[in-house]
Amino acid sequence: MKRNINEELVGAWIYKGKDDLLFAKASFKETEFYSQICCLCQQAVEKYIKATILASKGKLSKKDKIHNLNILANKAKSFLDLSQFEKELRMLTQSYIPARYPAESHIKVFSKNEARGCIEIAEKITEFIENKLKKAD
To answer: What domains appear along the chain, each with residue ranges and CATH number?
Structure first.
């Protein structure tokens, strides 16, 4: 049976999210770019949540094109309850902007422990989402 375009697009979002997380993990082993690793972890989870929204609603609207993981999780709630990860989603969201842009008074430098924590959180959440999406097939 031929997969429909929506299923292929959901798969593409998951694929890109996996890529981000795999690159973050490889970078953690080989570099000290901890800010970028935290950013990639947030991006991985964002892509997984957006794949969930796409799977449930059939499209992503302009209002879905945001980076706040808690808001995105709320938008996906009818299909997938991520409330158990509220604290972790907030942590990843709060690391995203400082990891990418300097603040007015300082540059946030992420530690190895913070990067490790972001990777662990991203792995846990993406695995949870992937399992739920597989069950929905």
So the answer is: 5-136 (1.20.120.330)
